[in-house]
Write a structure and sequence with these properties.
There is one protein chain. The protein is globular and about 60 Å long. With about 475 residues, it is an alpha+beta fold. The chain has a ten-stranded mixed beta sheet, with helices on one face.
Length: about 475
């Protein structure tokens, strides 16, 4: 018996040694094949933090951080990195801390990172050239990157910009969330068009607490506003100066591809080039994508379009709605991709149908010409389940399950973007006028911004306790994604 025990022990030791050797070889292999950033030369003064640079500045309004950037891709990236490097490093530190808690063994973390870098090593080849230059300049402008020893700065920025795609590629990812609705001219008091969305993105508290609203005026492109976080040059929620607003939702259908434009850059390309939903749909329809998803667009003409995309399948553009003045979208496909088994799983195993039913109910009770921004904000903050039934605070079947990173209401007619100051959807919403924002200068005091008051429920002890659980420190009831 002892002899067999020794044989087994030697065998296990040998297997462990072989595994370590293979892991070390993988680490060396990946390290030698890190992404090569475009050469952007000198990016000017580095070091910080700073509130103003030649091509950008930061200001606060109503608890919302505005980041104003203008110039060439190189100038945009350099200003971004210089202005926000301190916030980028602090927030990334929180992400690494969370990663270490989830994966406590250092060798396992190295292996996980190396496998991810190996699997997505060609992502940079899918970047639009202008975005690669912008990210390279942003990386160069970060003076003291304390995480460069883990993954080089440029490569880390590229992977972070593909995070939405990478996360959606996992079948049980928590990133299948978000609820959006649109109100056309016939449904609002002033005849304006509104697009309202809750961005449920459970990647960490920093994405909510430290959000940023970018006002980007790139050379030769349509200026646009984007609600995101420090470091992100792509778009998940935004509106351009022409009054075109776009938001993206996760969905599941078809295979996952390693080749394709990362979602956040695809969305940015739409805002930089398109003036209405027709042009937006045309741009989205001709791009290859990495993962399946849904894009909702609204324009200043009062039109809506829903574009459903999946790798290897032609995009489906839906414009014919039962009521063109009331449109709702959650996380399931309704065009040809609806028959996909993965979409069926989303319908059965997540809260997409429950949230959609609640949106449809609230839209149905909205009388002609009754909609406005405060009403839209109240709908985003709704805590009831389908049928109007009371459900526990933080229930995932509610529109506001206390997990939103940000919320917006885009008035595409007035070109005003209303943004939640946080926490979540409960803090006040601040109205940011795009026409004023794109003429702003760093030394001129900003005009007072209109607001929608914070939700009084956010002051309760129950709210704070449940929100902490819903954000990942525990689970609220009804936690069916």
């Amino acid at each position: 018996m002892r002899r067999w025990a020794r044989v087994l022990a030697f065998g296990l030791a040998g297997s462990a040694g072989l595994a370590l050797l293979l892991a070390a070889a993988l680490h060396l292999y990946v390290g030698q094949r890190s992404m090569t950033p475009p050469d952007v030369g000198d990016v000017g003064e580095v070091g910080g933090p700073a509130r103003k640079r030649e091509n950008g500045f930061i200001r606060m309004r109503g608890g919302v951080r505005e980041v104003h950037l203008r110039g060439s891709p190189k100038e945009l990236g350099a200003a971004h990195g210089a202005l926000l490097q301190d916030r980028m490093m602090e927030n990334e530190g929180e992400l690494w801390g969370t990663f270490e808690k989830v994966v406590p063994l250092a060798p396992a973390r190295f292996l996980f990172l190396d496998l991810a870098r190996l699997q997505y090593r060609h992502v940079d080849g899918n970047l639009p050239k202008a975005r690669a230059v912008e990210l390279s300049a942003e990386a160069r402008a970060v003076a003291n990157d304390r995480f460069a020893s883990k993954v080089p700065t440029y490569e880390r920025l590229v992977l972070l910009h593909a995070l939405y795609d990478i996360a959606l590629s996992f079948e049980q990812s928590r990133f299948v969330g978000c609820s959006t609705f649109g109100l056309g001219p016939a449904a609002t008091r002033d005849g304006h068009t509104l697009l309202a969305r809750a961005f449920d993105f459970e990647a960490g508290e920093a994405f909510d607490r430290d959000k940023a609203v970018y006002f980007v005026a790139g050379d030769g492109t349509i200026p646009f506003a984007s609600v995101a976080w420090p470091g992100l040059v792509g778009v998940v929620s935004g509106m351009n100066r022409e009054g075109l607003a776009v938001v993206v939702h996760g969905g599941r259908a078809g295979p996952v591809h390693k080749a394709g434009v990362p979602l956040v850059f695809s969305m940015r390309g739409v805002l930089e080039q398109a003036k209405d939903v027709d042009e937006a749909a045309a741009i989205l329809s001709r791009e290859a994508v990495m993962v399946s998803h849904i894009v909702i667009a609204a324009d200043a003409k009062g039109h809506f379009a829903v574009v459903e995309r999946a790798p290897g399948s032609p995009a489906t553009v839906r414009r014919d709605f039962a009521d063109p003045s009331r449109v709702a979208v959650t996380n399931h496909f309704e065009g040809p991709l609806a028959a996909d088994p993965k979409n069926d799983s989303v319908r059965r195993n997540t809260t997409t149908l429950a949230r959609r039913a609640r949106l449809d109910e609230m839209l149905a009770t909205l009388g002609p010409s009754e909609g406005d921004v405060p009403r839209a904000v109240a709908m985003l903050r709704d805590h009831r389940c389908a049928g109007g039934a009371a459900c526990a605070l933080g229930d995932r079947r509610a529109i506001d399950a206390l997990i939103a990173t940000h919320g917006i209401v885009a008035d595409t007619t007035a070109k005003v973007l209303w943004v939640s100051a946080g926490p979540g959807l409960s803090g006040q919403f601040v109205g940011l006028d795009l026409n004023e924002a794109f003429t702003a200068t760093p030394d001129a005091p900003p005009s007072p911004a209109p607001t929608v008051a914070a939700d009084p429920a956010a002051e309760s002890a129950e709210y704070n306790e449940v929100r902490a659980r819903a954000r990942g420190l525990g689970q609220a009831r009804g936690d069916k994604r």
